[in-house]
Automatic annotation (TrEMBL), chain A:
PANTHER family linked to this entry: METHYLMALONYL-COA MUTASE, LARGE SUBUNIT, METHYLMALONYL-COA MUTASE, MITOCHONDRIAL-RELATED
Keyword Transferase: no
All residue ranges annotated as the B12-binding domain in the record: 4-132
Keywords: Cobalamin, Cobalt, Isomerase, Metal-binding
Gene Ontology MF annotations: cobalamin binding; isomerase activity; metal ion binding
Entries under CDD domains matching the protein: MM_CoA_mut_B12_BD
Protein name: Methylmalonyl-CoA mutase
Pfam annotation, one family: B12-binding
InterPro entries attached to this UniProt entry: Acid_CoA_mut_C (IPR006159), Cobalamin-bd (IPR006158), Cobalamin-bd_sf (IPR036724)
Needed cofactors: adenosylcob(III)alamin
From TrEMBL, chain B:
Assigned keywords, A-Z: Chaperone, GTP-binding, Hydrolase, Nucleotide-binding
Gene Ontology molecular-function annotations: GTP binding; GTPase activity
Family the entry assigns: Belongs to the SIMIBI class G3E GTPase family. ArgK/MeaB subfamily.
Entries under PANTHER family matching the protein: LAO_AO TRANSPORT SYSTEM ATPASE, LYSINE/ARGININE/ORNITHINE TRANSPORT SYSTEM KINASE
Species per Swiss-Prot/TrEMBL record: Desulfotomaculum copahuensis
Upper classification of the organism: Bacteria, Bacillati, Bacillota, Clostridia, Eubacteriales
InterPro entries the UniProt entry points to: GTPase/Isobutyryl-CoA_mutase, GTPase_ArgK, P-loop_NTPase
Protein name as it appears in the record: GTPase
């Protein structure tokens, strides 16, 4: 039996580039995880559907612009509708302190990583929180 | 444990996804699950898609899926990418090209890493195909990069295999690996919007002339572009023709039989291999024989006879 942590890395929303998401994706791969990379401009529906089909442990959202306060709740809602609340949702990007607090307290995001968080920290967090 | 098989048969996506995970992980319950799935398999048409990196396999799978969905058929996709031999991780990016089908409930897409499991890749893929087959997919597209032997092995289990090539730059007929040429049922020259298409078509036809294959199916050479969609309807039509051909002239059952023989052979070989390895390792039940050979009290042939005699009764049954 050889279990591997599977992570979906997505870049929702309409804005710009996915450089950050790609760096994270590669970093997680180098830490031995299977990373399903879905690219730019994902709708919450696409993110959740892909996460279900790929049976991932974690959804990692790369956030650049301000839509996160609606995005995270929407994704959680869709996960619930599909009986998939066991999939953890985390995010990274520029999110103000008070909104991080609100998202975590609301249970919309398990963890949020601010820019500059070392990759090892993210890897470590995932390894600790996914029951293998 | 929740009953994944029952839920799968009633069309539950999460169960399909979870079953594939259990298979990939080689979970203890894998065999029992496959045992229950098996009666519900054998219906789907399995189409292998292989070719060099960047040939446009995923784009082609995406375009084909659109074409197949026009007929209301349910599509399963398995996209295999290499696992890094250093970290054991994998970056699975084929979905990027298939985004428009993500939320279509008639399409199920799954990415798999090769995981470097010795010869197990073909088996894991084969078993994942069974899951999607039982899930009710009419057509299952399996994408692999055509480089390694185990990727080639996967293609031996497809009903129809597409080999994707590109004009111009890389794909000269001389550089294409022999193994890949032999498994092609249909040659697809993708990126036909680029220069050099006619030459590549000519080269492949010439190659087919100089080494014709057994049987009455001569692999057609088709041209496609996923940019403007040209050739995609023809490609799907040709896949269906190939399918009818193998269905109708009685070769299908022969082909299926051969494939089952191959699968069973591989399963037996893996088990026997494991038995031998474990038996001869330190502490294994056959290990004392090594001492005997070392002391020249026995020769390796006689030792092999002994081991076979001892193990042939009921010892081969644990996977
Ligand atoms: N010009 C042209 N480019 C194409 C065509 N089809 C695909 N491409 C491009 O070729 C590149 C690779 O396409 P993919 O579909 O990812 O190719 P692939 O064979 O699946 O690649 P790997 O899975 O990485 O081996 C992308 O940049 C596509 O946009 C085509 O018909 N014409
Ligand atoms: Mg691909």
């Amino acid at each position: 039996m050889s279990r591997k942590i599977r992570v979906l890395v997505a870049k929702p929303g309409l804005d710009g580039h996915d450089r950050g998401a790609r760096v994270i994706a590669r970093g997680l791969r180098d830490a031995g995880m299977e990373v399903i990379y879905t690219g730019l401009h994902q709708t919450p529906e696409q993110v959740v559907e892909a996460a279900i089909q790929e049976d991932v442990d974690v959804i990692g959202l790369s956030i650049l612009s301000g839509a996160h306060m609606t995005l995270f709740p929407r994704i959680c809602e869709l996960l619930k509708e599909n009986n998939a609340e066991d999939i953890m949702v985390v995010g990274g990007g520029t999110i103000p302190e008070d909104e991080i607090k609100a998202l975590k307290e609301g249970g919309w995001a398990k963890e949020l990583f601010t820019p500059g968080t070392p990759l090892e920290k993210i890897v470590e967090w995932i390894q600790e929180n996914v029951r293998v | 444990m929740k009953d994944y098989v029952e839920k799968l048969l009633s069309g539950d996506r999460r169960s399909a996804a979870r079953l594939i995970t259990l298979i990939e992980n080689d979970a203890p319950e894998k065999q029992a699950l496959l045992h229950r799935l098996y009666p519900h398999t054998g219906r789907a048409h399995v189409v292998g898609v292989t070719g060099s990196p960047g040939a446009g396999k995923s784009s082609l799978v995406d375009a084909l899926t659109g074409q197949i969905r026009n007929e209301g058929l349910k599509v399963g996709i398995i996209a295999v990418d290499p696992t890094s031999p250093f970290s054991g991780g994998a970056l699975l990016g084929d979905r990027i090209r298939m985004q428009e089908h993500t939320t279509d409930r008639g399409v199920f897409i799954r990415s798999m890493g090769t995981r470097g499991c010795l010869g197990g890749l073909a088996q894991a893929t084969r078993d994942a195909v069974k899951v999607l087959d039982a899930y009710g997919c009419d057509v299952i597209l399996v994408e692999t990069v055509g480089v390694g032997q185990s990727e080639l092995d996967i293609m031996h289990h497809a009903d129809t295999t597409l080999v994707v090539l590109n004009p111009g730059a890389g794909d000269h007929i001389q550089t294409i690996k022999a193994g890949i040429m032999e498994i092609a049922d249909i040659f697809v020259i993708n990126k036909a919007d680029l220069d050099g298409v006619e030459k590549l078509v000519r080269d492949i036809r010439a190659m087919l002339d100089s080494s014709p294959r057994a049987g009455d199916w001569r692999p057609p050479v088709l041209t496609t572009s996923t940019l403007d969609g040209r050739g995609i309807p023809e490609l799907w039509a040709t896949i269906k023709t190939h399918r009818e051909k193998i269905f109708n002239n009685g070769t299908r059952s022969a082909v299926k039989r051969k494939r089952i023989q191959r699968e069973l052979t591989e399963i037996l070989q893996r088990r026997i291999n494991r038995l031998i390895t474990q038996g001869l390792d330190a502490g294994g039940r056959f290990e004392p024989v090594l001492e005997e050979i070392l002391a020249r009290r026995m020769d390796p042939y006689r030792a092999a006879d002994e081991i076979i005699k001892q193990s042939w009764k009921g010892e081969l049954s644990d996977e």
